[in-house]
């Protein structure tokens, strides 16, 4: 793996965010294992912390557009998963209900598509503007007896 070049922008996650991201993965795995093993009570209880942390992470990273749209897609994915799991746990005889989970899945794909097809190309087309700065002289020229104004 190559180390980043000095000119390449670095993306860093604050440690307090990273802790919740990692904890979220643990909750998500417990929820999905419970689903696979048909442990209804644990699976249903794990919806709350899994979805809560996904929303918290989305709110925390909302100022970074790429993170916001990817995390919105993850929230949609978890909602779809939780809905599908609930249908399988409580109404297995109504298998057609799982098709309704396509709604939050499509919403998630919509967030990703909007980011990659609209926002990302728009930011790469936007020219980088470097503001012009006038030189500032802080010292008097030799032989100049006028006092400097430092406001």
**Main sheet record:** none
- Given the helix and strand composition, which structural class is it? mainly alpha
Poorly predicted ranges: none
Report Rg: 26 Å
Describe the fold and architecture.
With 151 residues, the chain is mainly α. 62% of the residues lie in helices and 0% in strands. The protein has four helices and no strands. Helix 1 packs antiparallel against helix 2, helix 2 packs antiparallel against helix 3 and helix 3 packs antiparallel against helix 4. The longest helix has 26 residues. The two termini are 51 Å apart. The model has no long low-confidence stretch (mean pLDDT 86).
Features:
single chain; 151 residues; mainly alpha; elongated
Summarize the helices and strands and which ones pair or pack.
Blueprint: H1 15-36, H2 40-60, H3 65-90, H4 102-125
Helix pairs in contact: 1-2, 2-3, 3-4
In short:
15% of the residues are buried. The chain has four helices and no strands.
């Amino acid at each position: 793996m190559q180390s980043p070049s000095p000119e390449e922008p670095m993306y860093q996650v604050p440690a307090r965010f990273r802790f919740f991201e990692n904890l979220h993965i643990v909750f998500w795995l417990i929820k999905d294992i419970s689903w696979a093993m048909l442990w209804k009570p644990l699976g249903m209880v794990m919806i709350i912390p899994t979805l809560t942390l996904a929303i918290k992470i989305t709110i925390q990273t909302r100022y970074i557009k790429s993170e916001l749209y990817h995390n919105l897609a993850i929230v949609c994915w978890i909602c779809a998963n939780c809905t599908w799991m609930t249908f399988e746990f409580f109404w297995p005889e109504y298998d057609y209900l799982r098709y309704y989970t396509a709604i939050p899945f499509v919403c998630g794909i919509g967030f990703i598509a909007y980011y990659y097809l609209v926002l990302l190309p728009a930011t790469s087309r936007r020219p980088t503007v470097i503001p012009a700065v006038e030189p500032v002289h802080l010292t008097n020229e030799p032989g100049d007896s006028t006092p400097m104004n430092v406001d």
